[in-house]
Design a protein that fits this description.
Blueprint lengths: L2 H17 L4 E4 L6 H6 L3 E4 L20 H11 L8 E6 L3 H13 L5 E5 L10 H21 L5 H27 L6 H13 L3 H21 L2 H13 L16 E4 L5 H9 L9 E5 L4 H4 L10 H9 L11 H14 L4 E7 L3 H16 L3 E7 L6 H15 L1
Length: 400
């Protein structure tokens, strides 16, 4: 299925929910407490940039606004958003997102706009970081409750925790299965599951992922690689790869996709459309809309749900707002050196400062291990697709 087809399919379930009377709260930063919205009786939906969106409506935005932010703003101005009960913006993550939330309140005063402010680090001696985020989530909960007269329901929260945990557990297994055998399930199929769930996190969207994981588990058992898959999953979860021993007959090249808020489906489509190439070369992605969301821990059962949600959000791996640069680069080195990676594609969202600033450090870390890298600037519209495909194809050929 092409990129546009995946997008259309993921929105079908959301449109059906809206038509049936479900109320949707959209969120833009992918590391949001989904369980909170569900506990208040709303369906959370990740708002994404879309290809083919007409621009020209960005006169209110600052010059540093990235292509992703401009796309979101143009969607709303074009009337391409579904009817949302509310929209959650992040605070303290990047200047562009902060600015967009401020402009949105002024430009669209009838929209219910909320904000969740994140800490600058997830590390503190006295757990003050976690406590800060827990208090911010609690305040957000009170704001939602007052705005809609919908209280936080413990039963709904517990069901939401189970739903999100089922999704992450199954998807983590699929991700790790591809690390061991990238042909066991197409990368495009996994990221389609992820997009569908994040667009409309329902029981049916989770059931599809669970069925796929069960099928892959059966295949992996027959191939004798089930224990290796579980070892990879444990290694990624705890960040220690000493217990991982991959098969000796791995097909090459094996590449990793790094970057921030970049669409995994777009990358899969680019590679699958290349002659004599398939997404089986992608061993793993480290993207916010893929790996970073999938390998975030689900909230633990706790007497304080807000603290549990804060602890969960802060486990998102590789997030610049949550981890120090040296920590992220050490984690990257551990992954590259122990998972037999030959190449790293660094995707840079056009005009995104976090992506641009981090890319040199990623290149340096990979170079120290002898892993080749290529940087690919792109935007949600893939406006320079021909050049992007050429650079990726040339890079893959050098690895072969």
């Amino acid at each position: 299925m092409n990129y546009e087809g995946v997008i259309e399919q993921s929105f079908v379930g959301l449109k059906e929910l809206v038509e049936s009377g479900e109320e949707i709260i959209g969120y833009i930063y992918p590391h949001a407490p989904l369980e909170l919205f569900m506990a208040h009786g709303f369906t959370p939906s990740l708002i994404r940039a879309l290809p083919g969106v007409s621009g020209g409506f960005e006169e209110s935005l600052q010059t540093f606004a990235c292509s992703y932010i401009r796309n979101l703003y143009s969607q709303r101005t074009n009337g391409q958003f579904l009817n949302l009960a509310g929209l959650l913006f992040p605070g303290n993550t990047c200047d562009s997102l902060q600015n967009l939330g401020d402009v949105w309140r002024v430009r669209f005063p009838d929209d219910r706009v909320f904000r969740l402010t994140y800490p600058v680090t997830r590390y503190s001696q006295d757990d003050s970081t976690t406590k800060f985020l827990a208090e911010e989530i609690r305040l957000l909960s009170e704001t939602i409750s007052n705005a809609f007269n919908r209280p936080f329901l413990s039963e709904s929260y517990e069901r939401a925790v189970e739903l999100v945990n089922d999704f992450r557990s199954s998807t983590q297994f699929l991700y790790c299965a591809r690390v061991v055998n990238p042909k066991i399930i197409p990368y495009a199929e996994i990221v389609r599951f992820v997009r569908t769930f994040l667009t409309a996190p329902t029981i049916s969207s989770v059931s599809v992922v669970k069925d796929a994981a069960a099928s892959v588990r059966t295949t992996a058992d027959k191939l004798g690689i089930l224990d290796t898959i579980e070892a990879v999953r444990k290694a990624i979860t705890i960040g220690d790869y000493t217990g991982v021993k991959l098969p000796d007959d791995l097909e090459t090249p094996r590449i990793v996709i790094a970057g921030g808020m970049v669409e995994p489906q777009a990358i899969a489509t680019l590679i699958n459309d290349m002659p004599d190439m398939s997404d089986s070369v992608i061993v793993l992605d480290l993207l916010s809309f893929g790996f970073k969301t999938v390998f975030t821990e689900s909230p633990s059962k706790s007497d304080d749900p807000y603290l549990a949600m804060a602890q969960s959000v802060l486990t998102a791996p590789g997030e610049p707002t949550h981890e120090g640069l040296s920590y992220r680069m050490d984690a990257l080195k551990g992954l590259l050196s122990n998972l037999s990676i030959q190449g790293l594609i660094v995707c840079e969202q056009s005009f995104c400062d976090p992506d641009q600033f981090e890319a040199p450090s990623i290149e340096r870390a990979a170079s120290e291990l002898g892993v080749k890298t290529v940087r690919i600037p792109l935007d949600p519209e893939l406006s320079d697709r021909g050049r992007i495909e050429t650079r990726i194809q040339t890079f893959l050929e050098t690895l072969e």
